[in-house]
Design goal:
The protein contains 8 helices and 14 strands. It is of the alpha+beta class. Strand 12 and strand 13 form a beta hairpin. It is globular and about 55 Å long.
């Protein structure tokens, strides 16, 4: 069945397809590998890593892609036309009864051909443009969720009454970014308050000891010291309210890069002691599908 091409960033798209949830594990993996092959065909000579993020709710979708050069520089990339359609088909086919489907996915392809895919089904994506309210209502109509599986932010945006109480909602996990932006040369930058000497060890310990939502495989290039061997861990942590990559701790310890100030304040409020996190919340924080050879 042919699929329509991806929309321009921030533009709605139609999803007139077969009933949702029809892709089994084998079909999902096959489609993920097709995505990798499409990206491999696009990658220019000398590429180090390709990263593509697809965000969608209802009929609204966005697609953003960039290259990571050998020196760590980020370069915008125009993804092939079929990539958006593949993501849309994957999202549609991965719907689960009462649990809905994912809202954003990040596909990372590293030289020569290793890859990973992170799916987010609970916390709000970092939209390039704010989707219309109708898209959030359409999301729950097209991909229904049981009340307890509707994140509070999605229920509010979709206009769903919370008769059972907000406490029964799935947690609206907040994601911590490693850096704020990049300068003209592509070097990552941050503009955050420094972590005080009194809090430093406690913050690092909290970041490292919080429950693992997704184990890491391999290491990424140090964006602030790209000449060194890859040493940045890929593990993902969560404390049930925040989600952060192990890179947050790495860059704080190695280069003094402060985490987001709200995360530091949250850690301080928790007394520098990460709580236990149940399995369901860990699953909501991160779901991994990946392998070593997309093509």
């Amino acid at each position: 069945m042919s699929q329509p091409g991806p929309p321009e960033p921030g533009r709605p798209r139609s999803t007139e397809q077969e009933p949702p949830g029809r892709l089994d594990q084998a079909a999902q993996q096959k489609l993920i590998q097709e995505l990798g092959r499409a990206l491999l065909r696009t990658a220019p000579p000398g590429w180090q890593e390709v990263s593509v993020e697809y965000r969608a709710v209802g009929d609204y979708s966005e697609l953003a892609a960039h290259l990571v050069a050998p020196n760590g520089t980020l370069v915008p990339l125009s993804a092939p036309a079929e990539v958006g359609a593949m993501f849309a088909r994957l999202r549609h086919g991965m719907h689960e009864p009462d649990r809905g489907t994912w809202l954003s996915a990040i596909y990372r392809l590293q030289r020569p051909s290793s890859y990973s895919v992170d799916f987010n089904g609970d916390y709000e994506p970092s939209w390039q443009r704010t989707p219309p309210d109708a898209a959030f209502a359409a999301e729950l109509q097209r991909y229904p969720r049981a009340g307890a599986n509707i994140p509070a932010w999605l229920a509010q945006r979709a206009g769903v009454p919370d008769a059972s109480g907000a406490a029964t909602r799935a947690p609206a996990l907040r994601t911590a970014e490693v850096f704020d932006s990049a300068d003209a040369g592509g070097r990552p930058t941050t503009d955050r308050p420094e972590v005080s000497a009194a809090d430093f060890d406690g913050v690092v310990d909290y970041l490292d000891r919080a429950p693992i939502a997704r184990p890491g495989r391999g290491y990424d290039v140090d964006r602030l010291d790209p000449e060194q061997p890859a040493a940045v861990p890929r593990t993902l942590h969560t404390d049930g309210q925040w989600v952060w990559p192990a890179a947050v701790s790495y860059y704080l310890r190695r280069h003094g890069v402060p985490p987001e100030k709200d995360l530091v304040a949250h850690i301080r409020q928790n007394g520098f002691r990460p709580p236990e996190v149940d399995e369901r919340t860990r699953e909501l924080a991160a779901s991994l599908a990946g392998g070593e050879e997309p093509g």
